[in-house]
Design goal:
Ribosomal Protein L15, Chain: K, domain 2; 162 residues; 3-stranded parallel sheet; alpha/beta; single chain; Ribosomal_uL15/eL18_sf
Amino acid sequence: MKLSDIADNAGSRKKRMRVGRGIGSGKGKTAGRGGKGQTARSGVRIKGFEGGQMPLHRRLPKRGFNNIFRLDFAEINLDRLQEAVDAKTIDGSGVINAETLVASGVLRRAKDGVRLLGRGELKAKLTIEVHGATKTAIEAVEKAGGTVKILAPAKKDEGEAA
């Protein structure tokens, strides 16, 4: 067998239909688009139109709302804090707050504040200032000999909320 003998199986590759190329092709004149009107034009479709039937997005009820005063906290778990202390990216002797976490690269951004979550185990004695913490996280920090100070969350500006 030579390289020139290799070929596709018969019928495995089909040529595309060239539409609008005369009546004899079977796809001439309207090119398979039916008669005139909106659907015969290019690029024009009514999204969600179901032929006059009430569309699904109008049959379903509206639910909920977007709270403009909602605060979005950056979350950090105890195991992530312990990893950072072990890797010496965070100085465990000082106060750990949103600024130190962002500066050390543990958090990408502080958002509207930092919330401490209780996953994992903390061995280091840390002084932590956060905007929120779970009960299990506070208990774990205090068990390790540290303290947690809950700060008031920063309020959003009037311009951002609207």
